Task: inverse folding
């Protein structure tokens, strides 16, 4: 048996220990979750649905990718609008701002529009689809929705809770 496998393993171990990675990935058990990472940039966890299996982040640029096992669609506010998260979403994150977001859509009336930016301004979040935006109170995002059913997974919401409001219809 030659010492080559031992030398190779030692070299790889040394390389990974000495050279710092350019990105942070959620594959390490000591890495923060995608949800705690959001909080470190001053965003609530609820802007991401449950089910993120991994992510990567280039800390020098803020470029990120979040990965789900499959796409994720659910309705909010008693079906006044629907959200669709692709199996991979990406963008750039910085304190209070997510820009160049891809992979997240909202259904407005009969059109699917891409959400391209999320900005936190005090106790509000502004979601932009490019041509218009809508503001929501931050407390609406303290919990993550669940794929398929959003927040109404137990069927506990009553029909009287429906405000009939679709915030993406009018421009802010």
Result:
């Amino acid at each position: 048996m030659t010492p080559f496998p031992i030398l190779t393993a030692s070299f790889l171990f040394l390389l990974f220990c000495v050279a710092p990675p350019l990105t942070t990935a959620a594959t390490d058990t000591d890495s923060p979750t995608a949800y705690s990472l959001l909080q470190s940039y001053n965003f609530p966890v609820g802007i991401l649905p449950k089910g993120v299996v991994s992510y990567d982040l280039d800390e020098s640029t803020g470029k990120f990718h979040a990965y789900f096992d499959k796409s994720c669609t659910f309705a909010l506010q008693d079906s006044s609008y629907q959200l669709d998260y692709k199996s991979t979403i990406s963008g750039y994150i910085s304190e209070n701002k997510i820009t160049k977001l891809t992979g997240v859509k909202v259904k407005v009336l009969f059109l699917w529009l891409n959400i391209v930016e999320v900005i936190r301004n005090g106790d509000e979040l502004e979601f932009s689809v490019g041509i218009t935006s809508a503001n929501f109170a931050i407390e609406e995002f303290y919990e993550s929705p669940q794929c398929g059913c959003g927040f109404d997974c137990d069927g506990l919401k009553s029909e009287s809770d429906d405000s009939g409001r679709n915030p993406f219809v009018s421009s802010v």
In short: The beta strands are 23-25, 52-58, 63-68, 72-76, 81-94, 97-108, 111-114, 117-121, 124-128, 133-137.
